[in-house]
Amino acid sequence: xxxxxxxxxxxxxxxxxxxxxxxxxxxxxxxxxxxxxxxxxxxxxxxxxxxxxxxxxxxxxxxxxxxxxxxxxxxxxxxxxxxxxxxxxxxxxxxxxxxxxxxxxxxxxxxxxxxx
Length: 116
Hints:
4 helices
């Protein structure tokens, strides 16, 4: 019986020592390292948005400088024409009229979707 108690006591002491060493390693080595890395990530994330904004502005200005002036005018004219058509005709510019939708929805036998 004395051997079993000694073995049990030794197992408890070893487990407590291992847990103490792991907890100390976590507390004084791993956690400070992770805290530093998190601070670096937070600082980097605060710098990302201004850099992206600056990069987008620079990219757009460079691409507009490279485009011929006629291309920009023609694209603007087409965009305005499309916008005015959309404004005047509403969504029917995209979807077509109700009669067009019924014709597209019908099958070759002439049955309407409501008949099913």
